[in-house]
Design brief:
With 344 residues, the protein is of the alpha/beta class. The chain folds into 2 domains: 237 residues, Spore Coat Polysaccharide Biosynthesis Protein SpsA, Chain A (Alpha-Beta Complex); 76 residues, no CATH class. The chain is 41% helix and 18% strand. The chain is built from 12 helices and 9 strands. Helix 9 runs antiparallel to helix 10, helix 9 packs antiparallel against helix 12 and helix 11 crosses helix 12.
């Protein structure tokens, strides 16, 4: 069986302290990558010097700072393989990633492959949890058309068929939101072929946010503004795809997403200055959270369990409710193996 050629594009901005790790992980795959391309997005630290140490083992592209979206667009234009993995420069690939992706992409009906990531700390030490706990697969085009954002891995946990991406690119840039390239690539390609989910952890997500284990927001993510950010990205996704794929029409608004609403709900409660103020804040956020629970792709026992969790963190004394909120909202706070689902 002839397997597709897998290219790796590493997108970097001022992550010199992690970049060497990312490049090494791409170069030491058990099945050799077709090419490793580093797109440096206007770094002002030692990133270029780090990348140049690898010589002709990589292709280095340097551009003015334009954000992650610009780096994805530049990287794809340089790719000559059949499949591309976009690797964030603070993350790492595990040695079997290219082989597993190539085998999954041997099925030409597959446009996107996603896989789990294990969490590591700033020094590369394993933290224990693995994300996401759920990943959707199959023909998900109608799901996207209905505005439902299916369970998916974050950026470095994805590979795309290059021919599918090139039907869509360039990803639309926005001066106030230059990130989220994986959001557009991930949901866009789901309209052009099947999505395949691989059960193993094939990459490592580096958490380097200060005091991450005591935060209500996972990893390097933003806070409660992520709900509004996702809504804005969805509207841009909808407009972009209407042009890139004439005839495609997505629902006017994105469906409420529990993965984001739970953080907005918990953060509103525990950002309040008193227990009583937290009760009022929870009441304001409850309708959106309840809607996201009703829409979540799971059975009623799980839905009721999520509702019970929400009521618990809302009504319990803060010293009891906060650890419970943190456990569900932030995988880094756990010692277990699985985490809540993540989004592109």
């Amino acid at each position: 069986m002839i397997l597709p050629r897998v290219s790796i594009v590493i997108c970097n901005h001022n992550y010199a302290r992690f970049l060497g790790d990312a490049i090494s992980s791409a170069l030491t795959q058990r099945r050799r990558a077709h090419e490793v391309i580093v797109v440096d997005d206007g770094s002002t630290d030692d990133s270029l010097a780090i990348a140049r140490r690898f010589g002709d083992q990589i292709a280095l592209v340097s551009q003015a700072n334009g954000g992650q979206v610009a780096a994805y667009n530049t990287g794809l234009s340089a790719v000559s393989g059949d499949v591309v993995i976009f690797l964030d420069s603070d993350d790492r690939l595990r040695p079997d990633a290219v082989d597993a992706v190539a085998r999954a992409m041997a099925d030409e009906a597959v446009a996107r492959v996603h896989y789990r990531l294990s969490l590591i700390g700033p020094d590369g030490t394993a933290k224990g949890p693995v994300i996401p706990s759920q990943m959707a697969e199959g023909d998900l085009a109608d799901t996207v058309r209905r505005g439902r954002l299916f369970f998916a891995a974050p950026g470095s946990g994805n590979a795309y068929r290059v021919s599918a991406l090139r039907r869509l690119m360039p990803i639309p840039a926005h001066r106030q939101d230059r990130h989220g390239a994986d959001f557009f690539a991930g949901y866009g390609t789901a309209l052009l072929g099947r999505v395949r989910a691989l059960p193993e952890a094939l990459a490592e997500y580096r958490v380097h946010k200060d005091q991450d284990q005591v935060s209500l927001c996972f990893g390097n993510a933003l806070g409660t503004t992520r709900v509004a950010l996702q809504a804005n990205r969805y509207r841009r996704l909808r407009a972009w795809l209407a042009v890139a794929l004439p005839g495609e029409r997505l629902a006017p608004e994105v469906a409420a997403d529990f993965s984001l609403q739970k953080q907005a709900f918990a953060s509103a409660i525990y950002a309040a200055t008193s227990y009583q103020a937290g009760l009022r804040a929870g009441w304001q956020e409850w309708p959106s959270l309840w809607q996201s629970i009703l829409l979540r792709d799971c059975g009623w026992p799980v839905k009721l369990g999520l509702a019970a969790w929400a009521v618990g963190i809302w009504l319990l004394p803060r010293r009891l409710g906060l650890p419970l909120a943190r456990y569900v909202c932030n995988p880094s706070s756990r010692g277990g193996r699985l985490s809540a689902a993540s989004r592109p």
